[in-house]
Specification:
This protein is an alpha+beta fold and about 675 residues long. Among the domains are: about 220-385, Elongation Factor Tu (Ef-tu), domain 3; about 520-600, Arc Repressor Mutant, subunit A (Orthogonal Bundle); about 610-665, Orthogonal Bundle (DNA polymerase, domain 1), CATH 1.10.150. It has 21 helices and 23 strands. Strands 1, 2, 3, 7, 8, 9, 10 and 21 form an eight-stranded mixed β-sheet that branches. Helix 3 crosses helix 4 (about 115-125), helix 12 runs antiparallel to helix 13 and helix 13 runs parallel beside helix 17 (about 580-590). The chain starts with a strand and ends in a 6-residue tail after the last helix. The model has no long low-confidence stretch (mean pLDDT about 90).
């Protein structure tokens, strides 16, 4: 950690001193969203990356979305972020997942053109006012001692050629800090294949008083599509109905004009069956195959050569994205596992082998792949590998993603122990917003757990730090019926508008949607349908069961088979709605009791979240607290009683005592 000494005559880098409001280190998915948010809020922002050709690179699967992850992308978009728009510009396939399940777990997933995504995001960064993009390697952090409480304040960064100063610094370094790549018995320094590690940052963080630990993640081999027998695969086509992640693409057709994907004719390498032709936009299928008992035999026979089992890899890996060798060992009773062959773009023959993450030696990787039907003659273009890297345990952060040990330093993405592009981007936009707010001394934006999946993600990280790479699931949200992917704008657009992250036109469009949903719900409750021959004919034409008694529109919509458009065919008083608003109105009717129950529970929880704990509360001085509770409360230093209730080791009795003491402090009395 370097001292921010501006008077050292031997430091020639002072000639390159430049000042910014916010500096973002790393241009992965977290860094891009952080830099864009800060710049769009009017702060002069610098984005530093080790390689400008790797901006927003997808080093693992070039896909965006899925359960919970797709919800995050919609929320990032609602807050004015770029991930959704960039996905809509560059996807080669999009689908709605879990359509046979309830609305709370339905989510979009898109397969993107890997290189188009990277270039499109780089262009968004380069054309953003208030944002400078620069290739440089950060080796240290600048800091001074904060006189208010003795904590250090980070004031900038040191690169190999210059010093850059700012009121706030955001680290989004991914897997690069002290990164090490592993394939078989071979190890080499690197943050990902073809790129070196970031050195010096861990030491700077430790110098600021932070703890650093090691995690591990991995990626599968990429194979040549020209060596795949697609006749033995099961095509997985994209959606026949138009689907988009972003508000702009879904609600403003003008934004889709001039969309030139695929560029010219798509590659003839991939067979597109007639049922995969969607009409509204060219898409490529993915392809499903399965491992075999022979695949598993190859893996078991070579476990002694696996870095996971022979001690070469020491870091903890992700539970929900295990390597293929880990799956074969842990689920020994399963005769086969799903494997998806996913094209990486329109103009490439590289195929991502989803489900085959591995760090086994190259010869074993080839043998296990060739034991899969359809891949008997496959050739590997890039070998799978594991990467170990340093991360900062996330209980050292505030809910604003600022480190508690040092002021002015924010962390986002895999440096906080998460996995996944979407989790990284969600943290990135929040770190960018809060860093920008800190520059002007404003209160941070903290999203509640009942307000956004982003709130669930960050609260989990700070309150219950993971012991393995964290992945968000819909099951982590207590109010997931309220946090659907279709209503993200309705939940969060007011924050984005207040912060200047979305235009007044877009905010007005969101409010019009809200008003339309309310108008449709009120109309459904007040208009009635009377049985008659004409009604029966219209109901039959709309695909509805006969109406045998007088009923309101909302009663008719509550029928399991009824949809809003069908009911509207019988009730001309109902307004026309877009797909997302239609879902909102249908759910208000069909799930009214459940929604009311969740809203009531959320309201009760909000009272605990509003009950703030004084920053200066001395937990050591509180008599009656159990030792474990005292240690855990001191470790997290929760902002509210609600957050304290979610800390492991804090019991209801501890909370009751804490409530009493907080109330005494509020009344100006000393703690008992």
């Amino acid at each position: 950690m370097a001292s921010d000494d501006k008077n050292n005559p031997l430091d020639l880098s002072h000639g390159l001193d430049q000042r910014y409001d916010v500096i973002v280190v790393g241009a992965g998915h977290a860094g891009c969203e952080a830099a864009l948010a800060s710049a769009r809020m009017g702060r002069r922002t610098l984005l530093l990356t080790m390689n400008l050709d790797s901006v927003a690179l997808m080093p693992c699967n070039p896909s965006i979305g899925g359960p919970a992850k797709g919800h995050l992308v919609r929320e990032i978009d609602a807050l004015g972020g770029e991930m959704a728009r960039n996905t809509d510009r560059t996807f080669i396939q999009i689908r709605m997942l879990n359509t046979g399940k309830g609305p709370a777990v339905q989510a979009l997933r898109a397969q993107c053109d890997k290189q188009a995504y990277r270039l499109s995001m780089k262009y968004a960064l380069e054309t953003q006012p208030n944002l400078e993009l620069r290739q440089a390697t950060v080796t240290d952090l600048l800091s001074t001692r904060d006189t208010s409480d003795g904590r250090p304040r980070v004031t900038g960064v040191v690169t190999t050629t210059a010093r850059y100063r700012a009121a706030a610094v955001i680290l989004t370094t991914g897997t690069f800090i002290n990164g090490r790549l592993v394939t078989g018995s071979k190890t080499r320094p690197g943050g990902r294949a073809g790129e070196g590690p970031a050195l010096g940052i861990s030491e700077a963080l430790v110098g600021l008083g932070l703890t650093v630990r090691r995690f591990k993640t991995g990626t599968p081999p990429r194979v040549d599509a020209r060596t795949i027998d697609f006749s033995q695969t099961i095509p997985q086509p994209g959606s026949v109905a138009p689907l988009y992640f972003s508000h702009d693409f879904a609600h403003d057709p003008a934004t889709r004009e001039g969309l030139a994907l695929p560029p010219g004719r798509p590659s003839p390498i991939y067979p597109v069956p007639p049922e995969a032709e969607t009409g509204w936009r060219a898409q490529l299928p993915c392809y499903l195959v399965h491992t075999t008992t022979r695949t598993h035999e190859v893996i078991r026979a070579n476990l002694d050569r696996s870095p996971l089992y022979n001690g070469i890899i020491e870091g903890t890996g992700p539970r929900y994205c295990p390597s293929i060798e880990d799956k074969v060992v842990r689920f020994a009773d399963k005769e086969r596992h799903q494997v998806f062959l996913e094209p990486e773009g329109w103009r490439t023959s590289e195929v991502y082998v989803q489900g085959m993450n591995t760090s086994l030696p190259e010869d074993v990787q080839l043998a296990m792949l060739r034991a899969i039907p359809g891949l008997e003659r496959v050739e590997v273009m890039r070998w799978g590998y594991a990467v170990e890297y340093d991360y900062v345990p996330s209980d050292q952060l505030t809910l604003a993603l600022e480190t508690r040990a040092a002021r002015g330093l924010f962390l986002a993405g895999q440096i906080n122990g998460t996995s996944g592009y979407e989790e990284a981007a969600a943290q990135g936009i929040m770190a960018g917003i809060n860093a920008a707010l800190s520059v002007t001394g404003e209160e941070p934006l903290i999203l509640r757990r009942d307000e956004a999946y982003i709130g669930v993600l960050i609260d989990d990280l700070v309150t219950q730090p993971p012991g393995e790479p964290y992945r968000l699931h819909t099951s982590r949200a207590e109010r997931r019926l309220l946090l659907r992917q279709d209503n993200a704008d309705l939940r969060l657009a007011h924050h984005a508008y207040r912060l200047g992250l979305i235009s007044s036109e877009r905010y007005a469009a969101v409010e019009r949607r809200r008003a339309l949903a309310e108008e449709a719900s009120v109309t459904l409750a007040r208009v009635f349908i009377t049985p008659s021959r004409a009604t029966a004919e219209r109901a039959s034409a709309a695909g509805l069961e006969p109406v045998t008694r007088q009923m309101s529109g909302v009663e008719l919509l509550r029928r399991p088979e009824s949809r809003y458009d069908q009911v509207a065919a019988l009730l001309p008083e109902l307004p026309a709605l877009d797909p997302d608003t239609t879902i909102e109105v249908e759910l208000r009717a069909k799930y009214a009791g459940y929604v009311a129950k969740e809203e009531h529970a959320a309201s009760r929880a909000a009272r605990l979240e509003a009950n703030r704990i004084p920053d200066a509360l001395d937990y050591q001085a509180l008599r009656g607290l159990r030792t474990e509770a005292r240690q855990q409360l001191e470790r997290v230093r929760p902002l509210t009683i609600g957050q304290a209730s979610r800390i492991p080791g804090v019991t209801p009795a501890d909370l009751a005592l804490l409530l009493v003491q907080v109330e005494r402090l509020r009344r100006g009395k000393a703690p008992a």
